[in-house]
Amino acid sequence: MKVKENIAISDNGFVFNPTTGDSFTLNNTGKEILLLIKGGKSMGEIKTTLLSSYDMDETTLDRYLLDFVSELRFNNLIDE
Questions:
Q1: Distance CA 35, CA 17 (A)
Q2: How many domains does the chain have?
Q3: Span 8-36, mean pLDDT?
Q4: CA proximity to 3, closest of 78, 56, 74
């Protein structure tokens, strides 16, 4: 999966899709995940990074990641 090429991500978590004109604001964790995807990281690598950075169990992280990636797909921000 990868972030579509035309998606702009600012340092403060503002995301803009120029194709649709939609904009979104991400929290720090959402921004980190989107940047990891943009950097070409796999879901496994993203999970490992987040588990080492945040105090959460793997089940909670899996649920959060699935929901977040579903939202990215729904909002046309990533390609498979």
A1: 15
A2: 1
A3: 95
A4: 78
> Which domain covers residue 59, as residue numbers?
2-79
The enclosing domain of 44 has a CATH number of 1.10.10
**Residues, the chain:** 80
Residue 48 and residue 52: Cα distance in Å, rounded? Answer: 6
Residues whose CB falls within 8 Å of the CB of residue 8, separated by 6 or more in sequence, listed in order:
15, 16, 18
The reported pTM is 0.90
Measured from the Cβ of residue 17, the count of other Cβ atoms closer than 10 Å reads 16
Query: How far apart are alpha carbons 13 and 28 in whole angstroms?
Result: 7
| Banded pLDDT at 80 (limits 50, 70, 90) | confident
